[in-house]
């Protein structure tokens, strides 16, 4: 009798859970349709960008308020029309180009996400970081604004690996630019702290995590191979957005490169 009651109780809980999940999906679809109607007719790249999954992310970012989501999304469409993130190529050098490179990395990562996956995990290595080589606060604020306003709900978690003590002073300033929801996703990982390392391992496959981050994978950087793969991704981006890759041979807005570009001497210039 006890087993029968337990099984029946579990079935009831499963039914309730399925019903709740179905109601959430229906409400989500309703809100997405409402937002799409509020946006009005879209065409070209705007239409391609505004998929149901995209509209859902903007709704989640604005607590499912259609008017606020509409305003946020319209600002992103305006930004994309002028900034043209899909036309940025991976070979950049100056500080302004570093922000463009960050945008490129986001666009590239999104393009390569598995079907049905909307979020990603960032692993940022702070080995060798000092205040003299850090990104200026103004640049950091601009980067955060772009990520929060134009890539909402893309971040699943962010791991700051091996940050030096001096970074805490920089972080105290930067964190005020972060949305509270985003702030909760940021996790500090110290190699000598077992608990923080275990948290990171719960997000990453240890077999594929490089040894320098506590994993088992041994990786060797090959710049020519990396350059070739980036060019392939640039071509994939061009195909996705429906235009010929005029940047392939270095023609266009100055961010293109040949099949193999020179290896950069430094990724981040010293702060002035």
From TrEMBL:
InterPro entries: CRAL-TRIO_dom (IPR001251), CRAL-TRIO_dom_sf (IPR036865), CRAL/TRIO_N_dom (IPR011074), CRAL/TRIO_N_dom_sf (IPR036273), PI_Transfer_CRAL-TRIO (IPR052578)
GO terms for MF: phosphatidylinositol transfer activity
CDD domains cross-referenced by the UniProt entry: SEC14 (cd00170)
Database matches in Pfam families: CRAL_TRIO (PF00650), CRAL_TRIO_N (PF03765)
Every CRAL-TRIO domain range: 99-221
Protein name listed in UniProt: CRAL-TRIO domain-containing protein
UniProt source species: Rhododendron griersonianum
């Amino acid at each position: 009798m006890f087993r029968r009651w337990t099984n029946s109780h579990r079935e009831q809980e499963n039914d309730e859970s399925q019903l709740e999940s179905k109601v959430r999906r229906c409400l989500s679809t309703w809100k997405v349709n409402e937002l799409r109607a509020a946006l009005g007719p879209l065409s070209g790249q705007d239409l391609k960008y505004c998929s149901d999954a995209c509209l859902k992310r903007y709704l989640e970012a604005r607590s499912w308020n259609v008017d606020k989501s509409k305003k946020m999304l319209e600002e992103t469409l305006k930004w994309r029309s002028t900034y043209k993130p899909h036309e940025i190529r991976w070979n950049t050098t100056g500080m302004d180009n570093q922000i463009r490179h960050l945008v490129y990395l986001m666009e590239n990562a999104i393009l390569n996400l598995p079907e049905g996956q909307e979020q990603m995990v960032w692993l940022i290595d702070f080995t060798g970081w000092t205040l003299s080589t850090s990104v200026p606060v103004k640049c950091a604020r601009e980067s955060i604004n772009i990520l929060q306003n134009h890539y909402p709900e893309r971040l699943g978690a962010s791991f700051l690996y091996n940050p030096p003590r001096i970074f805490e002073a920089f972080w105290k300033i930067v964190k005020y630019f972060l949305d509270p929801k985003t702030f909760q996703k940021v996790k500090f990982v110290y190699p000598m702290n077992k608990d923080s390392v275990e948290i990171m391992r719960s997000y990453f496959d240890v077999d594929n995590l490089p040894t320098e981050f506590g994993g088992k994978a041994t990786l060797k950087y090959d710049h020519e191979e990396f350059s070739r793969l980036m060019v392939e991704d640039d071509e994939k981006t061009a195909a996705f957005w429906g235009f010929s890759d005029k940047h392939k041979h270095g023609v266009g807005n100055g961010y293109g490169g040949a099949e193999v570009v020179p290896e950069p001497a430094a990724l981040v210039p010293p702060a002035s």
